[in-house]
């Protein structure tokens, strides 16, 4: 496809490369190329890889007559193209013309369909389809000529219309000017009548002004006679007021000093009262400790006496036991002497027999002796353990009894613990009350301090009010004057400071500096009003003021670049708010001044950026246009300008603060209440401490007893096993002794048998037992008394130790009592001293309060005196002011009348009204309005030495008017209103007429202009007709070409679509048709293509399947190709989206329409299509010659049938 498109002149953008030189193949070449007809090749100068310099494609076309034509196109690596026609080099135009002669249209591409373009053909927009048909029909070549002709027609039509409208307008003017001519003549007569009335009105007004000036002059002369006495009376009252105010200020200072002394004394007294409470608490604590020590000492003394008695009793009992032991020993000795005794022979025999017996059973005797010793040792051990167990049991019983007693005491103390909790709650509540009272006292003290500080500030301001009296009175007079000006002169708006306000408080200082002297300027509507106000203030001696007339002030245009010139810089007019009516005055006062947040921003604007502008910081520092810096705050008191406060307001604040202090004094808790609370807290703390100590001691005693009982039980548990073990050992020894004793006794019975009969005993042991029993009883008695003596001795030593501890504790308690009594005496002395000091301070405060009351009474009297004097002075001042105001009002009236007279003179001069004059001329009146008056009011006007006001002298400019033309009736009964009414009536009639006084002159000009316009209109009509005819010719030819192609394609497309879609299921096939959007000029609109496959309802082209779109597109392409068909048609894989059935239908259609004069070249990958062709052609690359070659296979059954290659 690229080779065919290339040789037929298709642009490189539609090929597979962006540039033609990229089409040159630069692969490896194995041999030299051989040129063959209808084959594409590449010629290279040398063998090798990538050395090709150019490439060419040759197409051979054979027409119906068998004549061959060769078309060859060659390109080089430089991108140059060369065209050859029948081996001759020709231009592209000749080359393209040869192709067109065979209906091969390169722009319309009516000879090929690229791969993938089939569905796009069916889905293209109506405009694109219309343009395609324009290319096929050739009407597109007339598009440029069509546009030019249409533009020329529109231009000619517009020109003709313009000239027609112009001619009609001029004709209307001619008619209008003819009507205005008569109206202008009547207008001039009415104007003459009006001028006469205006002259009479001015004469009458001047006559009234002269009469009024003379009348006011007479009144002023009469009033000046009473003015001197009123001024002298006012001076006397002013001196009296100054003296009264000085006395009031002196009394106020004295009151403030005394209040300060009272506060200081009360503060000192409040500092001593807590010390007194603390000393009383210490005394209470010492008293409680002394009482507790005395109570404890008495208990210890009683215990000491009890211990002493117990020691004496035990010593007596010990002596008694010792005497009883001695008596028992002596008694036992006597009993022993009375027992059975033997003779000396019997005792000798006993000893011999005993010695003989001792020889017998020696082993048993030794064992018996050993066991006897063991039995005695174990017996002593059993006795000791038994005694110890008994003693521990007795001690346990004793301690159990004590524990029960402590438990009962603990139960009582637990009840006491509830009391402790109650005491703690009372203590906490009392402490909270004390804290609340102290905090309330602190709060009230703080409020008193704040109120007192504010009151001092108010007093300072009131004191300064006397210094600032002149300034305040000047402002008051200025306000009164402003009110009078607004009342007398309607055009007075007010002061600048009252008419504007900064958008935030931080800008107040800066705006005060920016406004400067204009901050108190008065804004008026007209300059005349300003002149009148200045003269009024001069006559009233109300001071000076600056006036800003809105009608004559020059306002510079605000430079908008400064609105966002730098961060932190704003135009002054943007940070101030004002009414729209006075905006010009505010802009005049502010100008292009800039308000900067900091000095750095101001320096950046003025110095770094070099802007000649006035920059003001928020602190009031100014950098002027000249570069000079003015530091410090503004001389204007901003707070007074924006939030004015007067003396009456300060006095109201003072009274409110005094009332607040009195209320706080009532609410302040007394000192005695704090003392009671502190004493109650001390009492509750003491009671709570004693109760806690008792409870803690009881708990410790119970814990000790429980620990001791546990220890005793532990020892008893340890003794019981040992006692049982010793008892078992002792029983075993006893049994063994009895056994051995029987053996030994048996041996002895044999030896002592005869001896026993002689002494009358059963056996020798009876005798020995009698003697042993006596010795044992003696030993037992001795042991019994020794144990009792040892027990009593130990008990006596224990009681003596307790007695010594009690004596030592008594000595310590005596020391504590002595120390606390000394401390209590010292605290009593301190308490007495503090009470005396507090009483002295309270007495001093009472005296100061008495003095304060007296001073306040004096201050009130002086204040009343000041108010009385002020009223008297104000009354006299009002009388004087009223007289001055009357004179000033008359002078103002004279001034106003003079100004009005000058205004009438000036108006007559400007309007050229010829006043009848007896003397002077209107030329003597200055043309600059109020020039002379400005110079006059700029000078100060002093009053006369006698205090009278001068009569206002006004200028008459040397003019004397002749009033003879005014008759007596007009002078007496006439009024300006009647004249104004007549003049207004004439003015209304004149205004309703609104004539054109130049209508006659304009009428001639318009008539000549009409003739010229008619000539231009005729020429424009002819040009419009010529342009319209030319456009219609181009339009006709273009429509004919387009409609010819469209009608052919529209007629063919339905049949072609039916041929492509009919089959066994639908013998009739589908339906396809074209429709025009614009039937008048079809090339300007679109062409809609509709295709309805067989047995399916109508749907848009976008909703068809891929195969259905392909069939519809092929039908459209075949129908288009049928109009001026090319000799061949190249199709590139148009069957990609078709199934085998539709492929067979396409193949049958192609086969049916192929002929010797019309050749189909189809590129396909489907066998069902190319198996129906006449021949198959294959393209391959020949490596030897580095060129393409073709292989052809003839598949025709009949050799002579037309086919598809």
Layout of helices and strands:
Layout: H1 2-7, E1 28-29, E2 48-49, E3 54-62, E4 68-76, E5 81-85, E6 88-90, H2 92-101, E7 112-113, H3 117-123, H4 126-137, H5 143-338, H6 344-359, H7 362-467, H8 469-488, E8 492-495, H9 496-499, E9 500-502, H10 508-515, E10 522-524, H11 527-540, E11 547-549, E12 569-571, E13 576-578, H12 583-590, E14 594-596, H13 599-608, E15 615-617, E16 622-623, E17 629-630, H14 638-642, H15 647-667, H16 671-751, H17 753-759, H18 764-910, E18 917-919, H19 931-937, E19 960-961, H20 968-973, H21 976-993, H22 999-1061, E20 1071-1076, E21 1087-1092, H23 1106-1121, E22 1128-1132, H24 1140-1153, E23 1159-1163, H25 1167-1170, E24 1175-1182, E25 1187-1194
Parallel strand pairs: 7-22, 10-11, 14-15, 22-23
Antiparallel strand pairs: 1-2, 3-4, 4-5, 5-6, 8-10, 9-13, 12-14, 15-16, 16-17, 18-19, 20-21, 24-25
Provide a descriptive summary of the structure in words.
By secondary structure, this protein is an alpha+beta fold. A five-stranded mixed beta sheet has the order 12-14-15-16-17, sandwiched between helices. A hairpin with a 5-residue loop joins β16 and β17. Mean pLDDT is 77; it is low at 30-48, 466-471, 634-645, 930-942 and 1201-1205.
Short structural description:
With 1205 residues, the chain is of the alpha+beta class. It is built from 25 helices and 25 strands.
Q: Helix segment count?
A: 25
Number of beta-strand segments: 25
Strand arrangement, largest sheet? 12-14-15-16-17
Largest sheet: 5 strands, mixed
The portion of residues forming beta strands comes to 5-15%
How much helicity do the residues have? 55-70%
Structural class determined from secondary elements = alpha+beta
Q: What is the distance, rounded to the nearest whole angstrom, between the alpha carbons of the first and last residues?
A: 14 Å
């Amino acid at each position: 496809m690229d080779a065919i498109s290339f040789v037929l002149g298709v642009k490189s953008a539609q090929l597979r490369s962006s540039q033609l030189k990229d089409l040159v193949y630069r692969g490896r070449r194995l041999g030299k190329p051989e040129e063959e007809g209808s084959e594409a090749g590449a010629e290279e100068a040398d063998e090798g890889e990538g050395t090709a310099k150019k490439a060419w494609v040759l197409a051979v076309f054979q027409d119906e007559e068998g004549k061959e034509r060769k078309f060859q196109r060659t390109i080089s690596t430089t991108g140059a193209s060369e065209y050859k026609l029948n081996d001759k080099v020709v231009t592209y135009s000749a080359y393209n013309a040869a192709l067109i002669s065979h209906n091969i249209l390169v722009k319309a591409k009516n000879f090929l369909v690229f791969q993938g373009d089939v569905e796009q053909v069916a889905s293209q927009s109506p405009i694109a389809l219309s343009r395609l048909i324009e290319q096929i029909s050739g009407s597109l070549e007339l598009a440029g000529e069509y546009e030019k002709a249409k533009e020329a027609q529109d231009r000619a039509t517009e020109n003709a219309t313009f000239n027609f409208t112009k001619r009609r307008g001029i004709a209307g003017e001619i008619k209008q000017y003819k009507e205005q001519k008569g109206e202008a003549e009547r207008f001039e007569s009415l104007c003459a009548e009006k001028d006469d009335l205006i002259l009479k009105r001015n004469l009458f007004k001047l006559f009234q002004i002269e009469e009024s000036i003379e009348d006011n002059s007479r009144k002023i002369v009469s009033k000046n006679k009473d003015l001197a006495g009123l001024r002298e009376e006012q001076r006397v009252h002013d001196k009296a007021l100054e003296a009264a105010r000085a006395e009031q200020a002196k009394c106020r200072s004295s009151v403030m000093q005394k209040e300060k002394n009272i506060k200081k004394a009360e503060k000192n007294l409040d500092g001593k009262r807590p010390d007194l409470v603390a000393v009383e608490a210490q005394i209470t604590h010492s008293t409680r400790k002394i009482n507790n020590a005395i109570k404890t000492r008495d208990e210890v003394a009683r215990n000491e006496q009890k211990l002493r008695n117990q020691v004496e009793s035990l010593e007596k009992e010990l002596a008694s036991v010792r005497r009883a032991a001695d008596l028992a020993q002596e008694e036992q000795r006597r009993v022993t002497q009375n027992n059975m005794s033997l003779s000396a022979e019997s005792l000798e025999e006993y000893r011999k027999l005993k010695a003989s017996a001792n020889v017998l059973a020696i082993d048993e005797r030794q064992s018996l002796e050993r066991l006897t010793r063991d039995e005695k040792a174990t017996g002593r051990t059993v006795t000791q353990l038994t005694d110890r167990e008994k003693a521990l049991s007795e001690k346990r019983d004793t301690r159990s009894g004590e524990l029960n007693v402590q438990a009962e005491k603990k139960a009582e103390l637990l009840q006491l613990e509830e009391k402790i909790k109650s005491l703690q709650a009372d203590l906490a509540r009392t402490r909270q009350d004390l804290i609340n009272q102290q905090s309330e006292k602190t709060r009230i003290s703080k409020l008193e301090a704040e109120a007192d500080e504010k009151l001092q500030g108010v007093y300072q301001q009131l004191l300064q009010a006397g210094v600032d009296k002149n300034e305040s009175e000047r402002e008051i007079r200025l306000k009164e004057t402003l009110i009078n000006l607004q009342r007398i002169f309607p055009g007075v708006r007010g002061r600048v400071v009252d008419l504007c306000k900064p958008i935030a408080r931080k800008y107040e200082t800066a705006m005060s500096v920016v406004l400067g002297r204009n901050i108190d300027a008065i804004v008026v509507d007209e300059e005349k009003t300003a002149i009148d106000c200045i003269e009024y203030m001069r006559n009233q001696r109300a001071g000076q003021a600056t006036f800003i007339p809105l009608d004559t002030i020059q306002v510079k245009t605000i430079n908008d670049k400064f609105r966002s010139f730098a961060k932190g810089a704003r135009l002054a007019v943007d940070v101030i708010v004002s009414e729209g009516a006075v905006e010009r005055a505010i802009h005049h006062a502010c100008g292009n001044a800039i308000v900067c947040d900091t000095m750095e921003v101001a320096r950046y604007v003025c110095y770094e950026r070099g802007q000649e502008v006035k920059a003001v910081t928020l602190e009031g520092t100014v950098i002027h246009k000249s570069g000079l810096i003015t530091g410090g705050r503004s001389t204007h008191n901003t707070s007074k300008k924006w939030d004015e406060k007067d003396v009456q307001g300060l006095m109201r604040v003072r009274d409110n603060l005094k009332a607040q202090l009195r209320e706080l004094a009532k609410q302040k808790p007394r000192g005695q209440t704090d003392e009671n609370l502190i004493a109650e807290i001390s009492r509750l703390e003491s009671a709570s401490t004693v109760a806690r100590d008792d409870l803690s001691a009881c708990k410790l005693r119970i814990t000790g007893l429980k620990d001791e009982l546990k220890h005793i039980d532990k020892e008893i548990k340890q003794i019981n096993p040992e006692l049982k073990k010793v008892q078992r050992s002792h029983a075993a020894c006893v049994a063994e002794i009895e056994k051995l004793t029987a053996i030994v006794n048996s041996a002895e019975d044999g030896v002592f048998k005869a001896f026993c009969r002689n002494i009358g005993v059963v056996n020798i042991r009876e005798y020995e037992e009698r003697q042993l029993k006596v010795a044992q009883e003696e030993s037992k008695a001795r042991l019994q008394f020794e144990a009792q003596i040892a027990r009593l001795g130990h008990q006596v030593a224990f009681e003596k130790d307790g007695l010594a501890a009690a004596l030592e504790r008594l000595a310590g308690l005596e020391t504590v009592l002595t120390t606390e009594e000394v401390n209590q005496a010292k605290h009593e002395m301190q308490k007495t001293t503090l009470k005396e000091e507090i009483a002295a301070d309270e007495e001093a405060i009472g005296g100061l309060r008495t003095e304060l009351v007296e001073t306040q009474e004096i201050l009130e009297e002086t204040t009343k005196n000041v108010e009385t004097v002020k009223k008297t002075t104000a009354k006299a001042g009002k009388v004087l002011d009223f007289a001055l105001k009357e004179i000033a009002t008359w002078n103002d009236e004279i001034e106003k009348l003079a100004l009005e007279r000058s205004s009438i003179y000036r108006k007559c001069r400007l309007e050229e009204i010829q006043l009848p004059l007896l003397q002077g001329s209107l030329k003597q009146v200055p043309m600059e309005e109020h020039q002379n008056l400005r110079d006059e009011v700029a000078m100060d006007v002093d009053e006369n030495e006698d205090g009278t006001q001068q009569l206002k002298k006004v200028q008459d400019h040397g003019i004397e008017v002749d009033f003879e033309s005014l008759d007596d009736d007009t002078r007496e009964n006439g009024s300006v209103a009647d004249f104004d009414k007549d003049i207004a009536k004439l003015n209304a009639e004149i205004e309703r007429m609104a004539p054109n006084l130049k209508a006659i002159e304009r009428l001639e000009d318009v008539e000549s202009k009409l003739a010229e316009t008619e000539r231009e209109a005729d020429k424009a009509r002819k040009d419009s007709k010529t342009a319209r005819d030319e456009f219609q010719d181009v339009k006709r030819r273009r429509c004919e070409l387009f409609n010819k192609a469209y009608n052919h394609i529209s007629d063919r497309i339905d049949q072609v679509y039916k041929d492509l879609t009919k089959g066994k299921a639908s013998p009739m096939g589908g339906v396809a048709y074209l429709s025009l959007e614009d039937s008048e000029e079809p090339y300007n609109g679109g062409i809609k293509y509709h295709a309805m496959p067989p047995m399916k309802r109508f749907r848009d082209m976008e909703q068809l399947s891929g195969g259905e779109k392909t069939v519809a597109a092929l039908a459209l392409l075949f129908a288009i190709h049928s109009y001026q068909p090319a000799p061949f048609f190249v199709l590139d894989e148009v069957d990609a989206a078709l199934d085998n059935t539709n492929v067979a239908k396409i193949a049958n259609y192609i086969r049916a329409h192929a002929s010797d004069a019309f050749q189909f070249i189809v590129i396909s990958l489907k066998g069902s299509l190319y198996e129906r062709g006449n021949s198959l052609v294959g393209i391959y690359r020949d490596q030897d010659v580095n060129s393409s070659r073709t292989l052809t296979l003839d598949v025709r059954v009949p050799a002579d049938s037309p086919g598809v290659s």
